[in-house]
C-alpha cells in the first residue's frame, strides 16, 4: 500500500495476517434484522452474487444485491457500498443491509460488495469497476453513488479517476486519507464526508483533510462537499447509527435528484419518510456488532472504536 499523503494519518492496516476469502454463502444477513416497513411498496428482492473480475487475479468478488421488488431496473441509478480493511458486507454498525433495503424499496438497486483482497486498493478498485460493469449490463445503470467505510474511502475515491461520467455522488463513513489522492481529480459531484468526533481508529481530522483535497481539486467551486461530524461517535457509529443511516439514504436521493433521476418517484411523502426513517438494527451495540460479524466486517483487526 502506498504511503499516506504528507500530514495525514498512515493507512489503517488491520492485520498482518491474510484475511480468508469470503464465500458468498458465508455473507449474512440478507435483509436488515428489522426490515423497513415498505407497504404498500413491494418488498425488495435480495440475492447473493459472484461478480467476475478480470485482472491478474482473474477471480470473482462476492456481493449481495438488493433490487426493487416490482422487477424495475432502477431507472439508470445504482448504489454500491463497500466496507473496511477486513472486507465484509454489513458496514459500520451493520447499517448496510438496512440502507440497501430502503433504497431498493424506493426503486434503486444497491450492491453490498465484498473485496477479493481486502485492504489492497489495487485489487479493490477492479472489484468496484467490475461491479459497475455488472450493474450497467444487467440493470442499465448509468449513474452511481459510491459509499465507503474506513479503508473503503480509498477504492471509492480512486475509481472515479476512470469513471467520471458514471459518478453521481460519494459518501465516506469514517474514511481514511491514505491512497485517496483520487479525490483531487473527482468530478464536481456531491460528496458527504461523515466522521465521528470520538473515532480513535481514524481521527476526525481525516474528514477535514478530504474536504480540503476535494476543494483543491475543484478550484472553480462547481462541486458540493459537506462534512458531517457526528458528535461523540466512534469509528463504527455505534452511538448514532440510526441517524447516520437516515442521512446516507437521504443524501443518495439528493445526488440522484441533481441528475434529474429522482428516487421514489410516485411514492407518497408519508411512505417515503416511513421507509427512510426506519432503523434496521434497533437496540444496543451488541446487536449491531452481531450483524457486523455475520457480514464478516470485523475481520483482519477492523474495529469500531
Strand content: 15-25%
Helix content: 25-40%
Number of H- or I-type helical stretches: 7
End-to-end CA span: 23 Å
Record field, number of beta strands: 8
Integer-rounded radius of gyration? 17 Å
Describe the global form.
globular
N to C succession of SSEs: EEEHEHEHEEHEHHH
Neighbour order of strands in the largest sheet: 1-2-4-3-5-6-7-8
> How would you characterize the largest beta sheet?
8 strands, mixed
Contiguous low-pLDDT stretches (5 residues minimum) are 1-17
The structural class is alpha/beta
Secondary structure blueprint with pairings:
Blueprint: E1 45-53, E2 59-67, E3 77-82, H1 96-105, E4 110-113, H2 121-139, E5 143-149, H3 153-158, E6 167-173, E7 190-196, H4 205-216, E8 224-230, H5 241-258, H6 269-277, H7 285-294
Considering the chains and any ligands shown, give keywords for the structure.
eight-stranded mixed sheet; 8 strands; alpha/beta; 305 residues
State the gist of this model:
With 305 residues, this protein is α/β, with parallel strands linked by helices. 28% of the residues lie in helices and 18% in strands. It is built from seven helices and eight strands.
Structural account:
The chain has 305 residues and is α/β, with parallel strands linked by helices. The protein has seven helices and eight strands. It has an eight-stranded mixed β-sheet, with helices on both faces. Strand 3, helix 1 (96-105) and strand 4 form a beta-alpha-beta unit. Helix 1 (96-105) runs parallel beside helix 5. Residues 1-17 have low confidence and may be disordered.
Amino acid at each position: 500500500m502506498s504511503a499516506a499523503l504528507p500530514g495525514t494519518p498512515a493507512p489503517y492496516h488491520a492485520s498482518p495476517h491474510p484475511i480468508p476469502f469470503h464465500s458468498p454463502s458465508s455473507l449474512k444477513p440478507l435483509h436488515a434484522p428489522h426490515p423497513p416497513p415498505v407497504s404498500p411498496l413491494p418488498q425488495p428482492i435480495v440475492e447473493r452474487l459472484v461478480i467476475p473480475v478480470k485482472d491478474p487475479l482473474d477471480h470473482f468478488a462476492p456481493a449481495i444485491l438488493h433490487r426493487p421488488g416490482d422487477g424495475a431496473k432502477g431507472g439508470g441509478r445504482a448504489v454500491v457500498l463497500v466496507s473496511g480493511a477486513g472486507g465484509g458486507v454489513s458496514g459500520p454498525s451493520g447499517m448496510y443491509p438496512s440502507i440497501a433495503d430502503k433504497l431498493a424499496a424506493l426503486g434503486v438497486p444497491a450492491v453490498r460488495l465484498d473485496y477479493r483482497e481486502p485492504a489492497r486498493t489495487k485489487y479493490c478498485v477492479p472489484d468496484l469497476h467490475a461491479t459497475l460493469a455488472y450493474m450497467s449490463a444487467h440493470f442499465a445503470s448509468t449513474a452511481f453513488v459510491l459509499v465507503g467505510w474506513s479503508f473503503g474511502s480509498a477504492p471509492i475515491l480512486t475509481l472515479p479517476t476512470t469513471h467520471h461520467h458514471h459518478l453521481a455522488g460519494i459518501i465516506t463513513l469514517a474514511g481514511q486519507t491514505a491512497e485517496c489522492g483520487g479525490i483531487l481529480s473527482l468530478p464536481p459531484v456531491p460528496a458527504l464526508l461523515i466522521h465521528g468526533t470520538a473515532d480513535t481508529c481514524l481521527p476526525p481530522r481525516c474528514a477535514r483533510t478530504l474536504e480540503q483535497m476535494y476543494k483543491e481539486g475543484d478550484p472553480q467551486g462547481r462541486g458540493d462537499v459537506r462534512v458531517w461530524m457526528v458528535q461523540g461517535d466512534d469509528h463504527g457509529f455505534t452511538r448514532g447509527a440510526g441517524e447516520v443511516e437516515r442521512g446516507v439514504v437521504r443524501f443518495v436521493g439528493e445526488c440522484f435528484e441533481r441528475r434529474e433521476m429522482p428516487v421514489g418517484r410516485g411514492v407518497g411523502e408519508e411512505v417515503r419518510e416511513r421507509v427512510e426513517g426506519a432503523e434496521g438494527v434497533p437496540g444496543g451495540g451488541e446487536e449491531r456488532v452481531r450483524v457486523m460479524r455475520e457480514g464478516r466486517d470485523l475481520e483482519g483487526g477492523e474495529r469500531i472504536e
